Amino acid sequence: MPDTLAYLQEVNASFLENLKDGDVETSRMLLWNVLEEIAPRVASAASDRHACEFIEVLVDHMSAQQLRFFLHKMEGYFSHLWTNRYSSHVLQRLLSKVGAIVGNEVKGEADDDDDPDRAADVPPMSSLIVTMCSEVQAEWLTLINDVSASHVMRAVFCALAGRAPVLEKRGKKGKHKALQFQSAQTTNAESVPREFEDTLSEMLELVLGSSDGRLVELMSDAHAGPVLSMAVRVAPTAVQSKVIFKLLKWNDPERSSQRFYDFAADSVASHFLEAVCHSCDEDVWAAIFERCLQGRLLEFSEHPISNFVVQNFIQRTPTSDLNSRLTLNVPGARIVETLLKFPTDVSEPIWASDNQDAKLALFEKLQGQFGSLVLDRNGSFTVLKCFDVVSVAEKRKKKVKELFSDFMDDQAPKKKRKHDKKDGKKSKKKAKADE
């Protein structure tokens, strides 16, 4: 391995220099030479703490044919590569590029005409991905909560759904990048073959076939939980609904309501509910709200973890009718109580949303309470936001009048106390004079 490391270090420096000079052809040929050189020991190189850094740089600049060649040489080693701390980062980097390549394959568009001779015996990228998943099929249930493999599985789910994960560096000292997912609403899915959807469904069905107790454990697991959240975000609607209803025990109304309650208070499982909120269709959203949240919003809002679930349901309300029901769900007086406790956690999503009706509805609920809110360090945030939202002069006038009235009422006892003190002093002086 020392020889391979020294070779990669030298080649990496030359490659970056060529890129800087704009010598594309030399860089392309250099990449092919590296791939052929490390092909016999690609698994060990990708698993090395230092070598993997150089490989990740090269992967970033590989053509579609070169990426296929590279992945093809990994076959037979995927179980190790998924679970190794360093090679798992290499795989994530590669998988982040799969979507566009497979999309072109589905459309029948040829990938870059790089080096047909070297890539002649290499299968299409879609076949390589399915082969990789099949190779580790017997280990899916253990890989899902492995510290390294779970990240690869999330990247695989994105690739199978035609979504592109985003790689972001972790921490100031982080040398590798961690997979982050951009919301389905902000990214367009690439076309994928039928085999991809079948593979994704097969993987999820195997996991969902576990006992209910095991599924609850997975939902709270720091590694498996995010995998299931990712599945909900990217899976096709039919598969997504199956995952949601299975994990929430939807066939039992009482248990599903309790399951939602338990998940909402869990630091890991609550992210699954947030993913459900932003990814499910309107009917599923409404069904979950009616069964699990309606009438209990305040209870959820007062919890340090589940209040984030409430935030997400407030931010993503599919229809104006559902928004009205959500807004009217909490009595006005208790809204004030909650806002004083969680000013930015609960009220800010409403003020930050584009739903003007929700903002005005909250304003109406708060009328009569502005005096209490403005005197509170946290509640004053909401009062200021109300001024920004309410543009109607008459309503602003009402609000100012209410605040001024509350101020005068607050000052009245103080004036009375001062007056009583003066009367007291006069009485004492008179008593002394009489003596």
TrEMBL record:
Residues 411-435 are annotated as: Disordered. It comes from the Eukaryota. One of its GO terms (biological process) is endonucleolytic cleavage to generate mature 5'-end of SSU-rRNA from (SSU-rRNA, 5.8S rRNA, LSU-rRNA). InterPro entries: ARM-like, ARM-type_fold, NOP9, Pumilio_RNA-bd_rpt. Keywords: Repeat. The keyword Repeat applies. SUPFAM superfamilies: ARM repeat (SSF48371). Residues 414-435 have a biased composition (Basic residues). One of its GO terms (cellular component) is nucleolus. GO terms for molecular function: RNA binding. It holds the Pfam family PUF. This is PUM-HD domain-containing protein. It comes from Aphanomyces astaci. The lineage of its organism: Eukaryota, Sar, Stramenopiles, Oomycota, Saprolegniomycetes.
